[in-house]
Amino acid sequence: MKFQYIKDKVSAYFTKGNERSVAVKKNIAVSLVLKCISILVSLQVVPLTIGYVNPTKYGIWLTLSSIIAWLSYFDLGFAHGFRNRFAEAKAKGDMKLAKEYVSTTYAVLFLLFSVILLITLVVNNYLDWSRILNIDPVYKDELSLVFGLLACFFCLNIVASVFTTMLTADQKPALASLIQTGGQVLAFVCIYILTKTTSGSLSALAFAFSGVPCMLLLVVSTVTFRMRRYRIIAPSLRDVRFSLTRNILGLGGQFFIIMVSMLFIFQFVNIILSRVQGPEAVTQYNIAYKYFNVLNMVFVIVLTPFWSAFTDAYVKKDYNWMSGIVKKLEFLWLLCIPILILMVLCSNFFYQWWVGNSVSISFSLSICMAVFMFFYTSANLYMILINGTSMVCLQLIINVCFAIISLPCICLFCRLWGVQGALLIPTVTPVSYTHLRA
């Protein structure tokens, strides 16, 4: 009887309420399960990778990966713009327009990133990565090959990811998470096989981390678009309307400026650390970041379904629902405080269990990372609300202002206070986001 009572309560929770809230709750529940799997895989892959190469090579790998991620900013905010426009078309029941948005986005990103990849590969031939990262010249040829592989798979993945963006815009982020988690699991399996069959190779690592998830995404999207539910909006050449580009980019352009600003604030840290403190400092920073980012990952799982849900509610002028949801999310954010305190207290034990003695991470770095993550989660909360309603002007201004001062300040603080100093600007920036709701 008790089991049946619990079962009825759970069933009622996931079936009662308006359609939008029910969809959000189901997506959050499934995404949480998938994210637990993803977190476990992420935790295991770090010591596995460090053991496969070494802490120095792992720091180099992290730096190169963060640099190649900059290519995503060259989509000019197109993916974010597409997400909102697709959600708006669906909310209005205009499936023809939704199909045209899908087809046009695929076409534009394919053409754009084909050019970007060609330019990247040409430029890569003339770059000396050992000098750029201030490391031993013996890595020069290997890094050039690794960067080329990462660029190829990353550009292909950007185009293929239109599919997961569409799923998220269709208020099915759990399906998108399933594909991403599947890619992580396959990559982990490949790396494990590599540790048993080959010696440490950054190029093999690049193929496992970037190539395997990309190929899985291509296969799944091809199969899904042939299924009955999504066949109606499957991309086709005859539905490409380049005239829609302007409509997408009108909003996407603002997202593009925001993303470029965030590149300076959050992503240049790895390069600055590598040059000022060395590749091992990058490893220390990223291990602490991965540990505390577990909380942010869970919080983002809760927030993700609300982006397109806010878009749907905003189009339908359901402001009462929006206001109630924001209050609940703000209460949930405050629960991060005791969790982060507990994570800080347990951090040294966790690092020892996770990576052993191969990497040493100071307690002060853990404290700084926890403070950063607290404000970063709050920023994500308000960004989801603002992004969902397409009113991103204030967010744009804040990011641009901090981006202008970020590089010299991060360099200075990194020299003065080491790895901890590198977190100062990335921490102060999200504090300003808490004013976005007003």
Topology:
Layout (H helix, E strand, L loop, with lengths): L1 H12 L5 H34 L2 H14 L9 H14 L3 H30 L4 H4 L7 H21 L1 H8 L3 H25 L4 H24 L2 H4 L12 H24 L1 H8 L2 H37 L3 H16 L1 H20 L7 H26 L4 H29 L2 H10 L5
- Given helix and strand content, the structural type is mainly alpha
Distance between the termini: 48 Å
Q: What is the count of β-strands?
A: 0
**Percent of residues in helical segments?**
over 70%
Explain what you see.
- By secondary structure, the protein is mainly alpha-helical.
- 82% of the residues lie in helices and 0% in strands.
- The longest helix has 37 residues.
- The chain is globular.
- The mean pLDDT is 80.
Structural features:
438 residues, globular, 19 helices
Summarize the structure.
This protein has 438 residues and is mainly α.
